[in-house]
Amino acid sequence: MPTDLPPTPSSRSISAYALHRDRLEYHLTVRQEPKQARMCGVGGKADRRPIDPPPIVQLRVVDPAVKIRARRRRRRREDGSEGEGNADDEDDGELEPPADLAGYAQSFLQNPYYFMFASLAKPDDDKELHWLKDGRTRCTTGSVVSSLYHLKDPHNANEDAGFFVFPDLSVRTEGSYRLKLSLFEVVGNQVRHCKSIYSAPFYVYTAKKFPGMEESTPLSCSLADQGIKIRIRKDIRVRKRTGGGKPTPSHHPSRPSFDVHRNRILDEVDKSAQTRHNVRKQALLRDGYRCTLTGLYDMESCKAMPEIEQARLESAKPCAFLEMAHIFSESTQDDDKNHAATIFAILDLFGLKERTKSLYGRGTNELHNVITMAGELHTCFDHFELWLEPVHNEDNTYDIRWSPGVSCLLIRSHLPDRVTFRVEPGTAAAAAAKGKQLKLPDPVLIAIRAACTRVANLSGAAEQIGILRDREEMPVLANDGSMAELLSSCLMFTSQAANVSLHGITS
Q: What is the mean pLDDT of residues 450-469?
């Protein structure tokens, strides 16, 4: 237990405190916010992990009348009239606080009748969640009540402070939650509610998706050193990365998991060999884990990173499954060299051999050739039903255009008429600090695709593209001639692609 505690307040101090109870002000501050947890399930053998890091709340109790009288007495001392009577002070009578105002102000730290109760609440609803759907099992398990601990505050010159600590609180079900932290005081044979406060949102993962417990924070370590039963974890990330051995001291003991995630992605930028998986992560990071057209957040990222889920809640935007749309499709996917030749032919027709070189091989898997879109929009984009028209004299700004056949599409009603692409500001700053650059989609490639899409919609080429897609599902050719048109289209496509490939070799 902590030492060097202030002396026990006198009976007069306690009496004055009781009389002043109704006008006391309770200040609650969440000093350590929960970030994540692993769902523990139901049953005695469930593997239970507490909320990480353990929530810590600081209590301050203020009596406005004491502050006012202290201010008056200070003014009288300054004016040299300290011995003179004062009508306001006489009215207080026996409510006058003890002479040791500092001791009186800290007397709440000695009060054994304060306690705090923690319950679950949804991020966007203040209603408390106590029971699972069966009506018998609680949503939380472990210690949901904390007494008031009189400790030293390591972040405030080791001054005396009152803390409520929840080191053994677990949640049974996956999802995004907040904690409702309610302060109570036992008064005689009654329990009096004083005040409540909500934590920041945090996410409870399944065992498979849980990223692991984070390294203990300096505040947790300090309270543990003072006798609070908090399990301390040191250099977890370093041990996992090195596979054991003596860990290297971390200079960021409480660094948020999102910062680590972002830095790992940025370290992969500009590397020579880029996989589709890596580029997708880079594109999501660049675009703020949002669809560039609708602003919808990526469902998987919201589940995996509480910071993204919190940003989504603050913006009041829903989630969607986001995909990586290629301005020009991958050339080596499934060894489709004919498709590659078609891409190069289109670009060559526009006199853009340099752009052709940038897309050669796996160059299609580059940031300048991908756009983050909701799945339904990606499908429309690939089928030439949706395209982007560059806006003159406005960098990275595009008008959204649709073909006439998709006027009834539901998601269309949620789209703006114009969008501007930009790197998410926090990510841009982090990339600049590393000397990295997250490229935005190439305006020239977008303009070329827009031209191709307009031609396709005007000439009926979109229908021809649909025919070519049918070849992927084509069975053995029927002998009644019903597949003649499909066979003709495929042969013509192959012949043209071969000519382009030979032209590229000879030139």
A: 64
Note every long-range contact of 155-162, with CB atoms under 8 Å and residues 24 or more positions apart, other chains counting. Answer: 155/31, 155/218, 155/219, 160/5, 160/6, 160/106, 160/109, 161/58, 161/109, 162/58, 162/59, 162/60, 162/108, 162/109, 162/114
For the beta carbon of residue 16, count every other beta carbon within 10 angstroms: 22
Query: Between 276-286 and 257-268, two packed helices, what is the crossing angle to 10 degrees?
Result: 120
pLDDT mean over 330-346 = 50
**What is the 3-class SS of 214-274, one letter each residue?**
CCCCHHHHHHHHCCCCCCCCCCHHHHHHHCCCCCCCCCCCCCCHHHHHHHHHHHHCCCCCC
Consecutive H or E run containing 369: none
Phi-psi map region of 295: left, alpha, beta (phi>0 left; psi -120 to 50 alpha): left
The architecture in CATH of the region 11-215 reads Sandwich (2.60)
> What is the residue extent of each domain of the chain?
11-215, 257-506
The mean-pLDDT minimum among 167-171, 281-285, 460-464 falls in 460-464
Angle at 11 between CA 5 and CA 15, to 5 degrees: 110
Nearest residue to 182 (alpha-carbon basis) of 65, 55, 53, 314: 55
- Using a cut of 0.90, tell me whether the model's pTM lies above it: no
The answer to whether 218 and 196 are in contact (CB under 8 A) is no
Among 194-203, 265-274, 343-352, name the most confident range.
194-203
According to the model, what pLDDT value does residue 277 have? 84
Q: What integer is the mean pLDDT of 179-208?
A: 91
The pairing of beta strand 319-320 with beta strand 297-298: parallel
pLDDT at 480: 53
**In this structure, are residues 70 and 102 in contact, taking their beta carbons and an 8 Å threshold?**
no
Question: Are the beta carbons of 405 and 383 closer than 8 angstroms?
Answer: no
**Length of the chain, in residues:** 507
Is residue 4 within 8 A of residue 170, CB to CB? The reply is: no
| 202 close to 51: Cβ distance less than 8 angstroms | yes
CA separation for the pair 146, 143 (Å, rounded):
8
CA 55 to CA 59: how far, in whole Å? Answer: 13
Residue where the block lists tokens 């932290």? 181
Inter-residue contact 196 to 181 (CB < 8 Å) = yes
Q: Tell me, what's the pLDDT at 104?
A: 45
Q: How many CB atoms lie within 10 A of CB 219?
A: 20
Q: Note whether 203 and 84 are within 8 A (CB).
A: no
What single DSSP character describes residue 181?
E
Q: Are 108 and 61 in contact (CB under 8 A)?
A: yes
Sequence-separated contacts (24+) of 131-140 with Cβ below 8 Å = 132/42, 132/172, 132/173, 137/42, 137/172, 138/172, 139/171, 139/172, 139/173, 140/169, 140/170, 140/171, 140/172
Return the closest-CA partner of residue 36 out of 152, 192, 199.
Answer: 199
